[in-house]
Amino acid sequence: MELNFFKYQGTGNDFVIIDNRDGKIFLTTEQVNSLCDRRFGIGADGLMLLNTKEGYDFEMKYYNADGNESSMCGNGGRCLTQFAFDRGIVKDKYKFMAIDGEHDAYFTKGWVYLKMKDVNSIEKHCGSFILNTGSPHYVKHSNDLGEMNVYDEGNEIRYSDDFKETGINVNFVESTEEGKISVRTYERGVENETLSCGTGVTASALVFAREGIGFNRIEVSTLGGELAVEFDKVSETHFENIWLCGPATYVFKGVIRLKTTV
């Protein structure tokens, strides 16, 4: 079977996207993994289906590169919103459904603003922090981010006794100047460092802001580019009205032949 696909990226976090509004595409774990393979497939950090959903502009179905359906992907949500617009779903403000619930999104000044779930808990863990921004994240402060071996250190935490069963995304964050941070992330499901992670950037910004005074927007640098996180801080562990802000870019489209029937 031949499959039409599109490739998008958000600050280097790249995705295979398939328009499945007719509901005819069903992919196995092995097929998703093959499509995301950077040597034998298209190559991506994840794969998304644009589905229809009654009462919403669309539904987001997200799979990690390992082929398994995963939790929320922030950069993916922004890219899928851009894809929906490019495919003719034109709105001033979007409302779509993802695995963690409803999300709003809109465009401004060339960026996609994506509303994330509220955060009601930030837990301390061995001097670092754990929170869920649609996906579970471990946030650790660093003073030498540029020299860090993110794969080794992230892999060690992700497969530690506390997290190995279900996995966790591991973020290393360094403050660069007032209201600005740099973040590098080891992502579960990809099992490697990615150039950017939207839910990880969000988690890192909120941890950074928990003791900050007056912050409601934090600029974030990743290996793949610049993002921002806006929010209302209710307390040190409670944040609402959270928006992940950044670019979402079309890369290319093509046709690929699947080895087995979908």
Describe this structure in words.
- This protein has 262 residues and is α+β, with helices and mostly antiparallel strands.
- It has 2 domains: 2-115 and 248-257, Diaminopimelate Epimerase, Chain A, domain 1 (Roll), CATH 3.10.310.10; 123-246, Diaminopimelate Epimerase, Chain A, domain 1, CATH 3.10.310.
- The chain has helices spanning 29-36, 74-86, 150-158, 198-209; strands spanning 2-10, 13-19, 46-51, 58-64, 94-98, 101-108, 111-115, 123-125, 128-132, 136-141, 169-177, 180-187, 192-194, 217-222, 225-235, 238-246, 249-257.
- The protein has a 17-stranded mixed sheet that branches.
- The longest helix is centred in the N-terminal third of the chain and has 13 residues, at 74-86.
- It is globular.
List the helices and strands in order.
EEHEEHEEEEEEHEEEHEEEE
> What low-confidence regions span 5 or more consecutive residues with pLDDT below 50?
none
Mind describing the biggest β-sheet?
A: 17 strands, mixed
Mean pLDDT: 95
What is the count of β-strands? 17
Tell me, what is the CATH class of the largest domain? Alpha Beta
**Approximate strand percentage:** 35-45%
Kindly report the CATH topology of the largest domain. Answer: Diaminopimelate Epimerase, Chain A, domain 1
N- to C-terminal separation?
A: 7 Å
CATH architecture label name of the largest domain: Roll
- Global morphology: globular
What class do helices, strands and sheet pairing give? alpha+beta
Rounded Rg? 18 Å
